[in-house]
Amino acid sequence: MQPFVYTAAPARIVFGAGSSAGAAEEIHRLGLSRALVLSTPQQKSDAEALAARLGRLAAGVFSDAAMHTPVEVTKNAVEAYRVAGADCVVALGGGSTTGLGKAIALRTDAAQIVIPTTYAGSEVTPILGQTENGVKTTMRGPEILPEVVIYDAELTLGLPVDISMTSGLNAMAHAAEALYAQDRNPIASLMAAEGLRAMIGALPGLKAEPRDIEARETALYGAWLCGSVLGAVGMSLHHKLCHTLGGSLDLPHAETHAVLLPHTIAYVEQAVPDLLAPLAALVGGRAGAGLYDFAARLGAPASLAALGVRSDDLDPMAELATANPYWCPRPIEKTAIRDLLQRAFEGTRPE
């Protein structure tokens, strides 16, 4: 066995249907008393309802969270946090809202309670991605990790099927890359394989019956595991390409992961098929092609073109993605990455 280092995240995880009713108790447990509730504009009414339930513990609502955590939005949120006299944030929503909470915490040392309503997984990572002037950068540090995460499957019952599918594939991307991470370890690999098993088992059931609470709980369980490994080990080619395209072209985050995942995994699989064998066994056949077929059965978007990417975007994106690449078990070659992007643009099945 190769030597390894495993660092467990110190976050408190509260899991169970109806568990979001205990948000006030978690604020008290942290010794705090004024929470700024965060959401996107689309979930403003849910955030206001949560603030009403928190009563005097709610310092206000900030509902302008946006994809890719724009720095300008964060500046406004930090100002709102200070004006409200808040001492913590409660982020209700998906990755955009979680990212805003992390960005506020980075600048104010605010404690964070996250109540995820999607399967993004970022709530259990010490990683923050921010966008400024069209460029997305990421950073990592213990001060970014939320203190408490409340997983309440009841809050995901209304998540639209299409978003459920792409959000689940987004979570799976974290676990898939963890299997071949440079700093992989046995614990993270076990969590990754179990997270993939849970998501692959849950998503088809959710597509057929979106209000199946057991399937929703299994998907949240899988999202927790997939997100946890994203925080435990380094990511690689897939996340680099998603950050590059998403931040530069302002693409929808989960959908970008869903389209690129079969192609990035197929690219890496040529170098380390043994490390991706657990995923291949779950999807059948080769990992990349199996993921493509699985995503197709879920009805997920299959091409970058469907997300609004133009053919003349591909050359500059390949250039940008290979200028400062993440570590990858297969050498990063600009021509090969350009070919990968072409296949993803067209939506062709990986060989």
Automatic annotation (TrEMBL):
Residues 165-345 form the Fe-containing alcohol dehydrogenase-like C-terminal domain. It holds the Pfam family ADH_Fe_C. Belongs to the iron-containing alcohol dehydrogenase family. The keyword NAD applies. It comes from Agrobacterium salinitolerans. Residues 10-152 form the Alcohol dehydrogenase iron-type/glycerol dehydrogenase GldA domain. It comes from the Bacteria. InterPro entries: ADH_Fe/GldA, ADH_Fe_C, Alcohol_dehydrogenase_Fe, MAR. Keywords: NAD, Oxidoreductase. GO terms for molecular function: alcohol dehydrogenase (NAD+) activity; maleylacetate reductase activity; metal ion binding. The keyword Secreted does not apply. This is Maleylacetate reductase.
